[in-house]
Amino acid sequence: MSDSHSDSLVFFGATGDLAYKMIFPALQAMVKNGHLDTPVIGVANAGWSVEKLRERARDSVEKNGGLDQAAFEKLSGLMRYVDGDYKDPATFQTLRKELGSAQWPAHYLAIPPVLFGLVVEQLGKSGCAAGGRVVVEKPFGRDLESARNLNRILLATFPEPSIFRIDHYLGKLPVKNLVYFRFANSFIDPFWNRNSVESVQITMAENFGVQGRGAFYDQTGAIRDVVQNHLFQILANLAMEPPARNDSESVRNEKVKVLQAIPPVDAKNVCRGQFRGYRSEKGVGQDSKVETFAALRLEINSWRWQGVPFYLRAGKCLPVTSTEVLVRFRRPPEIFSSAGEAFSNYMRLRISPDVVDALGMMVLAPRRETMGELTELVASHHPSADEMDAYERLLADAMAGDPTEFAREDYVEEAWRIVDPILKAGTEIYEYEPGTWGPDEVDRRVLPAGGWHNPVVAPAAPEGVLQPAGG
User: Fold this and answer.
1) Active-site residue identified among 230, 381, 382, 453
2) Would you call 230 a catalytic residue per the annotation?
């Protein structure tokens, strides 16, 4: 595989929902920001023409972020279209002709995983894979066995350095910032370990349901949909060691080491829930045992983290939509006997909807100088409209051949290894009311010392301001 920048972008599933909502707006932004100046070839089996694809792309950007006339006109000029059945070799011969003199194409598979093997095999047989890269949309399998099978299919045609397993979550700037925040600030490392940290919580809450995607979700569930990938990615960024170098493989090596140190999750350390009304959703089975909420406790048996419990929680129809990390520190020795209730110090890192870094600390309460109160030092940032979107960032990286923010084969398989036992255990599903923080049973089965921290979405304080701690 050449280190050259991809000289064409082929995306399968060009007429699909993902392309409409995410890919066309990202392509327009890439053109606008100088990250795309090569042919863009859409492939689908819809009976369309290139003119209809351009119309679809224009409608997409108008309704998902806004039309930039100059950038869209340039994108429109770059667009090509190949229509045909993925099972038909003639479709891929047409694609080969459309690629023309391109030597390093990037093939983006925005299609259902069941089609990955077929398309990859056809790319190989037609010669379209030669010198190219393949960008694979998640999910990467349903369990460890299927992930291994998928990797075998991909590796039969493309070498590992040419495989880019894309998960938009890794392209989000606040997720990337967790690593930068840790290693660019010298004050953090002395207390970022088992000696100072009592526990770590990661919560990904959504205040909405399955939004018409019941048939998909009923084959997936919260553990497969967000825990095994999104929450593990946050976990790896929080727990990894500093890489020896800042190159992609050094960074990815350290993330894999985190997962390698995690034993498979025991069923007794899991609580699964399902919101009331889920089984009435279109496409959902009347006797569905799929979880819309999951909380679990795991350990990282590394030198830095051994003995520190990590609590992960995700769910739909919860009170707010927010992703937040709470690192709770061990309590200091008691010397202020009259200070009232003592709280643990903590660091709170919000990833969405806004970005917040907060440090919880005890200070003397105003006008009550024998009492203490918990206060936060808060720095906040509201993302601006011109910040780079996750798909724009990741597609640009893939075409440039930078795999840093993409999952490697061993990472994917290690992540599935950790959750495989609980996926197969068939643990009980507990019902919970929409708008609550999951089933009552979570506090009996998976409860951090000091209780769960529930994110509160409210206007952020001005940067660098001390404010009373809430939530």
Assistant:
1) 230
2) yes
